[in-house]
Write a structure and sequence with these properties.
alpha+beta; six-stranded mixed beta sheet; Immunoglobulin-like; 3 domains; 4 helices
């Protein structure tokens, strides 16, 4: 009796097992997508691929006409989400210029998004959504866009007079994000460097493309022994693996001084002027009617006037010479700094 019951139950058990084995795989598979867990850091204007892949899904290759893919972007510190790309019914629709996915990659479960020439404002959170009816899966990933400094504007050498207060300027251009550190160093013995503290606060300005510029000033009052000294402008920014730096060399010149000959001429003219004034002022009132004394007074008066004119002309020449020297060194310096 027991054997007979066993024979009746056994076909039922075997039939159940066969039905389980022949059940469609889609019933047991769950749709899952995977994206980068770490923030993806990319360079400004680079071509970028944001990964989004199906995993633990065994029905590959896929019938792509039955797949729907959507990509969304949300900027940093923003609650609004914007659709970037959509694939549906075998058609790609880009809401951001150049956005696309690989059709051959999608057949193998790769829905990664391609974005050419990434811009600074495109950093933030990206969401990938994949639909294989009736299943739906999604994941998010973060993207950060950086721009390395494009240049450091610092002259190779600058000319300055000794003991004159002088401002050295270093301009760092085209970086993002905004935080930046600029350090001034003085090179000692050609190998060692010493950080210089007498620099002003950094001035930050923005460009039309969203990048920033920074300007730092170093105040100097060099002596003749500082001639040939090398100063370095060192830039520290998160986009740089190592600090960026540029160097300049000081050319210190002596102060422009009046020569001894010019001083002697000035003293002689001053004495002649004083004597001529004395003769004119004190002698002439008592010498009326005396032609010789009157002639001497007139001669003294003419000498005094001539000496005054020469003195004024010499002073004018000195002022003009000083302006020329200042303009020469000043324009040369500004030209080098620019």
């Amino acid at each position: 009796m027991a054997n007979r019951a066993y024979c009746l139950v056994l076909p039922v058990i075997l039939g159940g097992l066969l039905l389980k084995l022949w059940e469609p795989q889609a019933v047991s598979d769950s749709l899952k997508v995977r994206m980068n867990e770490k923030t993806q850091i990319v360079s400004f204007n680079a071509n970028v691929i944001i990964n989004c892949e199906l995993y633990d899904f065994h029905l590959l290759p896929l019938e792509i006409n039955g797949i729907e893919v959507r990509w969304f972007h949300r900027r940093t510190n923003s609650a609004n989400e914007v659709k970037v790309f959509e694939y549906y019914g075998g058609k790609q629709t880009s809401f951001r210029s150049g956005a696309s996915i690989s059709i051959s990659g999608l057949r193998m479960g790769d829905a990664s998004l391609f974005l050419p020439l990434i811009q600074l404002q495109e950093g933030g959170e990206y969401r990938c959504e994949v639909i294989i009816s009736p299943n739906r899966a999604q994941a998010t990933s973060r993207l950060e866009v950086e721009a390395q400094p494009s240049s450091i504007l610092l002259p190779q050498e600058v000319v300055v007079q000794e003991k004159k207060v002088f401002t050295l300027e270093c301009i760092v251009a085209g970086f993002y994000p905004e935080p930046v550190q600029i350090i001034w160093k003085k090179v000692i013995s050609g190998t060692h460097s010493l950080i210089v503290d007498n620099s002003e606060a950094i001035n930050i300005s923005s460009n039309n493309d969203g990048t920033f510029n920074a300007t730092s000033h170093l105040i100097l009052q060099p002596l003749l022994e500082d001639n040939g000294t090398i100063y370095q402008c060192v830039v520290v920014h998160k986009s740089l693996l190592t600090p960026l730096q540029s160097s300049t060399t000081l050319i210190v010149t002596e102060l422009v001084k009046s020569t001894d000959v010019e001083k002697t001429i000035m003293y002689v003219l001053l004495i002649v002027m004083v004597l001529g004034f004395c003769v004119w002022f004190f002698v002439e009132p008592f010498a009326k009617g005396n032609t010789q004394v009157t002639a001497l007074c007139r001669w003294s008066k003419d000498w005094w006037r001539q000496g005054l004119r020469q003195h004024q002309a010499l002073r004018l020449q000195q002022r003009q010479l000083s302006r020329v020297v200042r303009r020469l060194f000043g324009s040369n310096l500004r030209h080098r700094v620019q």
